[in-house]
């Protein structure tokens, strides 16, 4: 199958850029021909090209006529549709859904999302059925989970964030860490500390504060994870709640309280190394990229067959 993945930007290592990299390389490993169309190419594009996948900023330079197009956003959807008007497309939505959401004027025939909340909103705003969840997945080949068990009390703390409004959370967590006799580290562009391999970095910490894909990767790496960002505080990931958090993409609907010292302290108090290990095991079994590629190919094939359901 000839697949074209379209992403607004492919220059850094934000969520959809990681998804684009992993899907393209995963499909290529299975013998599919893959290309990436983007508005901005950078280091991550160079990484993918070195593995034999074409990356272009010009639709005319794509070296084949795609059988299927995969959009991660709508930024280039109109342009891509004009270039390949007869090629059916799927959209996997990763972000906030505005009331103005629309795929009119594009060749998108199947819409999915990475959380239950996303697909519910799209269906409500557009009046069209979606094709269900296509979760975020993690390429477990790119890192090793921590080898040592988590300690009874977390010694190394890490905050992962990209949000512009994350400094209040950072200040409150820093205060709590000091009260516990710990030093809070932080990674993410808003904290002026980018990392090329987030799961590998998270494997070196006992307790990680993150949301969305970052929380998923941290848990897969074997850290204990509190789901939180500037929007609110969820909870500590356990074997009992991991399925629900995964279904919600560790994001907005997962938050039970606004950000506060009390809410953060409650989540930290729930730290349990055995439960964290159960959450990690479940995710590594169910959120592996290979399962994601299976789901993606099933969606592609159903779309090409003109089916309404997968």
Give your account of this protein's structure.
With 310 residues, the chain is an alpha/beta fold. It folds into 2 domains: 2-137 and 288-304, Rossmann fold (3-Layer(aba) Sandwich), CATH 3.40.50; 141-286, Glycogen Phosphorylase B (Rossmann fold), CATH 3.40.50. Helix content is 36%, strand content 17%. The chain has 11 helices and 11 strands. It has helices at residues 15-29, 43-49, 77-83, 116-126, 167-179, 198-202, 212-220, 242-247, 261-269, 273-286, 289-304; strands at residues 2-7, 33-38, 54-56, 68-71, 89-93, 108-113, 157-160, 184-187, 207-210, 224-229, 232-236. The strands form 2 sheets. It has a 6-stranded parallel beta sheet. A 5-stranded mixed beta sheet has the order 8-7-9-10-11, with helices on both faces. Strand 7, helix 5 and strand 8 (184-187) form a beta-alpha-beta unit.
Keywords:
single chain, 310 residues, alpha/beta, Rossmann fold, 2 domains, 5-stranded mixed β-sheet, 11 helices, 36% helix
Describe what is shown at a glance:
This protein has helices spanning 15-29, 43-49, 77-83, 116-126, 167-179, 198-202, 212-220, 242-247, 261-269, 273-286, 289-304, and strands at residues 2-7, 33-38, 54-56, 68-71, 89-93, 108-113, 157-160, 184-187, 207-210, 224-229, 232-236.
Strand order of the largest sheet: 3-2-1-4-5-6
* SSE pattern, N- to C-terminal: EHEHEEHEEHEHEHEHEEHHHH
CATH level 1 name of the largest domain:
Alpha Beta
* Rounded radius of gyration (Å): 20 Å
What share of residues are in beta strands? 15-25%
The CATH architecture classification of the largest domain is 3-Layer(aba) Sandwich
Structure summary, number of beta strands: 11
Q: Could you tell me how far the N terminus lies from the C terminus, measured between alpha carbons in angstroms?
A: 18 Å
How many helical stretches?
11
CATH topology of the largest domain: Rossmann fold
| Overall pLDDT level | 93
Largest sheet: 6 strands, parallel
Poorly predicted parts: none
> Can you tell me the number of structural domains?
2
Helix content: 25-40%
Identify the overall geometry: globular
What structural class should be given to the helix and strand makeup? alpha/beta
CATH superfamily of the largest domain: Glycogen Phosphorylase B
């Amino acid at each position: 199958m000839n697949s074209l993945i379209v992403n607004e930007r492919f220059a850094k290592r934000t969520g959809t850029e990681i998804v684009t990299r992993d899907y393209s390389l995963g499909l290529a490993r299975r013998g599919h021909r893959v290309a990436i169309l983007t508005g901005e190419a950078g280091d991550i594009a160079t990484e993918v090209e070195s593995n034999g996948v074409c990356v272009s900023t010009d639709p005319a330079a794509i070296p084949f006529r795609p059988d299927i197009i995969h959009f991660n956003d709508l930024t280039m959807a109109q342009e891509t549709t004009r270039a390949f008007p007869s090629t059916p497309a799927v959209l996997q939505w990763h972000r906030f859904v505005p009331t103005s959401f629309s795929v009119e004027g594009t060749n998108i025939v199947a819409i999915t999302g990475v959380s239950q909340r996303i697909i519910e909103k799209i269906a409500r705003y557009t009046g069209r059925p979606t094709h269900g969840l296509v979760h975020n997945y993690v390429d477990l080949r790119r890192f090793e989970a921590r080898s040592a068990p988590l300690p009874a009390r977390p010694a190394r703390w890490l905050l992962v964030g990209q949000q512009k409004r994350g400094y209040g959370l950072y200040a409150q967590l820093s205060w709590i860490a000091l009260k516990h006799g710990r030093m809070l580290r932080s990674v993410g562009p808003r904290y002026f500390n980018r990392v090329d391999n987030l799961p590998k970095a998270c494997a070196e910490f006992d307790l990680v504060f993150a949301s969305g894909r970052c929380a998923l990767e941290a848990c897969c790496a074997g850290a204990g994870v509190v789901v939180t960002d500037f929007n609110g505080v969820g909870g500590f990931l356990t074997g009992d709640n991991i399925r629900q958090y995964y279904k919600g993409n560790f994001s907005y609907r997962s938050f039970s309280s606004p950000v506060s010292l009390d809410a953060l302290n409650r989540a930290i108090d729930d730290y349990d190394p055995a439960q964290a290990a159960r959450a990690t095991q479940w995710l590594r079994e169910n959120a592996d990229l290979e399962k994601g590629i299976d789901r993606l190919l099933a969606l592609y094939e159903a779309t090409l067959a003109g089916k309404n359901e997968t």
